């Protein structure tokens, strides 16, 4: 929802944010422990645009706000085909490895934790996903984003090959 006084451009959908992970960090000082927070947030419009962000602050609300602002700066657009992804793809970041596969209508989002948040924010309704490495939410989110960045739609493939869409789908 647009804030009061803020205008939403026509044709531009609103971004929804989802907190993936909130980490409390303690710094031991002479006067005792000082707590701060680190949050990873995913934002998306549910129609193929998605981004993630990291925020750190002493206060939880400020931390999440910073993460949302960072996520809005890192938006990518992914190709969607009938509520799913166009093809199978692997993604990797650090020790986090993910595999995403297109699924038939009615399957739903078969994915765990951090991956589910990214895929739902992107607007993918039917997908099979597997996290195959680290379970660290930071690495899983970044690996999922890597896999989504690598996705190519049929129009992109036809353009790269220098042929028409009709010729791409021939025998």
User: Count of helical segments?
Assistant: 5
Major sheet details: 4 strands, antiparallel
Tell how many strands the DSSP assignment holds.
8
The portion of residues forming beta strands comes to: 25-35%
Spatial strand sequence of the major β-sheet: 1-2-3-4
Order of helices and strands: EEEHEEEEHEHHH
Oligomer: single chain
Terminal CA distance reads 47 Å
Shape: elongated
Percent helix = 25-40%
The structure class reads alpha+beta
Mean pLDDT: 89
Report the radius of gyration as a whole number of Å.
19 Å
Q: State the low-pLDDT regions, or none.
A: 1-9
Verbal overview:
The chain is α+β, with helices and mostly antiparallel strands. Helices cover 29% and strands 33% of the residues. The chain is built from 5 helices and 8 strands. Strands 1-2-3-4 form a 4-stranded antiparallel sheet. The chain has a 4-stranded mixed sheet with strand order 5-6-8-7. The longest helix has 14 residues, at 60-73. The protein is elongated and about 70 Å long.
């Amino acid at each position: 929802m647009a804030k009061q006084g803020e205008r939403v451009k026509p044709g531009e959908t609103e971004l929804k944010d989802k907190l993936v992970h909130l980490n409390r960090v303690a710094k031991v000082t002479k006067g005792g422990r000082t707590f701060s927070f680190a949050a990873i947030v995913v934002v998306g419009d549910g129609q193929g645009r998605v981004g993630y962000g990291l925020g750190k602050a002493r206060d939880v609300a400020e931390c999440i706000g910073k993460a949302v602002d960072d996520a809005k700066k890192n938006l990518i657009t992914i190709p969607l085909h009938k509520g799913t992804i166009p093809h199978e793809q692997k993604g990797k970041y650090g020790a986090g490895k993910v595999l995403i596969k297109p699924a038939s209508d009615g399957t739903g989002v078969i994915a765990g934790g951090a991956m589910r948040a990214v895929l739902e924010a992107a607007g993918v309704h039917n997908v099979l996903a597997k996290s195959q490495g680290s379970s660290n939410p930071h690495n899983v989110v970044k690996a999922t984003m890597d896999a989504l960045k690598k996705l190519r739609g049929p129009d992109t493939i036809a353009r790269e090959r220098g042929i028409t869409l009709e010729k791409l789908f021939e025998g």
